Amino acid sequence: MSNLCMLQKFYREFFQLLASYAIPNVPQCKRPAGDDSDKPVTCTQMRPAQSITSAAKLRDEKIRQYKEKQDLEKRIFSPGALDAVGVDEEVQRENSLSLVRYWAFVGVSEVDLLCDEINLLASRESAAGVTETPSPEPPRPPLLISREAVRSTVFGAGYPSLPTMTLDQFYDLQVKKGMFPAPPANASSVVKAYPGEVQRIDPSEELAA
């Protein structure tokens, strides 16, 4: 952006020099009255207002400038046009003025392109400055680590499931559910609750014997 503004400023100085020398038949790129030379000029400032000059007149003017630029280009860049020896001073003067007019036409078109690019960059910067603020994230619950939870993982059994009942309690619970058969009433020291599957031993009877 700064380089484009600097280049636009150089073109302004170039057109100001052309105006100060009063070279005839040179296109001018005028700035509005009171405009600061360091301020970038937009396309609307450099180009004629559409309300004053109709589109047809503007098109005719562009065509005329293009044809005149082509004529100047053929005259200037023809072999030996500017470096010919023994040419009359009037011819040399006209060739020099043609060279200045040619670069003035080039400058007008370049300034139009600079204005378009400056407007594009300015619109991007303004759009980037008005970006939508992202919605705040929902608050997360705090992470709490209790001393008991840490102690159980360090000094516990090493797995989260700890026994909640004895084997007798588990067997009685399964009997109530009908999963295991009930033990016989006249059980001896070694009672077969279910042949081939479950055997129940009473330690008290073993000690009494």
TrEMBL record:
Pfam families: TAP42. The lineage of its organism: Eukaryota, Metazoa, Spiralia, Lophotrochozoa, Platyhelminthes. One of its GO terms (molecular function) is protein phosphatase 2A binding. It comes from the Eukaryota. InterPro entries: TAP42/TAP46-like_sf (IPR038511), TAP46-like (IPR007304). GO terms for biological process: regulation of dephosphorylation; regulation of signal transduction. It comes from Schistocephalus solidus. GO terms for cellular component: cytosol. This is Uncharacterized protein.
